[in-house]
Design a protein that fits this description.
2 domains, alpha/beta, ten-stranded mixed sheet, 9 helices, elongated, Rossmann fold, 358 residues
Length: 358
């Protein structure tokens, strides 16, 4: 029996997904010595090593050959997982002699259960490759927008993987790193209308938030520029263990999404102070804009009446992606202040849920 002690860095198992044409394949090409299994055939514009599997059987054969000899490659990039799933579905249908996955074993969702099972088997093979040949594994996936209906809140749209729901769950649980990338956007008021603007910057997220699925067992910022240098250090790190809540902490439902709980604000006779780690946000009025001053005064009045803090309100607004992180409340435009007033009940509801650890 060989006993090994001490920490040891292990190869990364990651998922990268985002909007089309944002540079996911270029980002993956910067990972250590990559070999692309280019199912989508989207890497031709890059100077990378690639294999083009024409079927799922060919794809699995590539994995078997790499298990025998990794040929010096340090990262296996599968581009893309959603195209690979289409290959997988065709393979299952061909073996079963059916024309649609919905007809697998007389339907009732059994076909998609079979697809998820095949994903689990494939990921097991990739884990063996990862550990025996010391290879990082990275899946590239396209994103789509899907309606999300949490049990304790109103529904909203969010980004997720362009894959079947069961397969998405399998891939998410398998990964140690799941990054979502998009263009940075913000809202502005133009002639009384709210418009979405962009600055061309690309950003990526490493933690769950209302508009996307993301996760990281490495110490990465929640939000960062879409630049390989931001994650380069993880290849010499050991993933952190899953965090367990304190024994006396309220237990969230097993299937509830992970959210960060803002620190509770201590009570005070006046406005509750901003949490220590949040810089003070002294409201700034715009003397040349009476409408702005009026809306800001309404928000201040709501804060006093509800007993929440400036930092808690700002955190909810930033979490929704309405304003950049760190923007003082007094600098919010009129449209954003109006949205806060209109949606005040939902904002307070969310703050109270976070305080309860839900």
């Amino acid at each position: 029996m060989e006993i090994i002690t001490g920490k040891k860095s292990t190869p990364v198992k990651g998922v990268l997904y985002g909007v089309a044409g944002i540079g996911k394949t270029t980002f993956a090409a910067k990972w250590p010595k990559p070999l692309f299994l280019d199912v989508e055939q989207g890497s031709w514009q890059l100077d990378v090593a690639r294999v083009i599997p024409k079927s799922y059987a060919e794809f699995k054969d590539c994995i078997r050959q790499l298990q025998a000899d990794a040929m010096g490659y340090q990262t296996l990039v599968i581009d893309s997982a959603d195209w690979l799933e289409q290959m997988m579905v065709k393979h299952i249908c061909a073996e079963a002699g059916i024309s649609s996955i919905e007809k697998y074993e007389k339907g009732y969702g059994k076909g998609w259960t079979k697809v998820a099972e095949d994903w689990a088997q494939l990921l097991d093979q990739l884990d063996r490759l990862r550990l025996t040949k010391n290879m990082n594994i990275l899946f590239i996936v396209h994103s789509r927008i899907k309606r999300y209906e949490p049990a304790d809140d109103t529904g909203y749209d969010r980004y997720t993987l362009t894959m079947s729901e069961r397969s998405t769950d399998v891939l998410k649980k398998w990964s140690d790193l799941m990054l979502f990338v998009k263009y940075d956007t913000f809202t502005v008021e133009d002639n009384g209308k709210i418009k979405v603007k962009g600055n061309g910057k690309r950003i990526m997220f490493s933690q769950f938030c209302p508009w996307c699925d993301a996760k990281s067992r490495y110490p990465l910022p929640d939000k960062m520029p879409f630049d390989f240098a931001q994650i380069q250090q993880i290849f010499t790190m050991e993933p952190l263990p899953e965090q367990e809540p304190p024994k006396d902490a309220p237990q969230a439902p097993a299937n509830a999404p992970k959210t960060e709980t803002p620190p509770a604000t201590p009570p005070a006779p006046e406005l509750p102070p901003v949490p220590p780690e949040t810089p003070p946000e002294a409201p700034q009025t715009a003397p040349d804009d009476p409408k702005h001053a009026e809306l800001l005064a309404q928000v201040e009045s709501l804060i006093r009446q509800s007993g929440v803090g400036y930092g808690e309100v700002a955190a909810e607004v930033e979490l929704a992606g309405v304003v950049p992180a760190g923007t003082p409340l007094g600098n919010y435009n009129n449209a954003t202040l109006q949205r806060i007033i209109t949606g005040w009940s939902a904002i307070v509801h969310n703050i109270n849920l976070h305080k309860k650890g839900k």
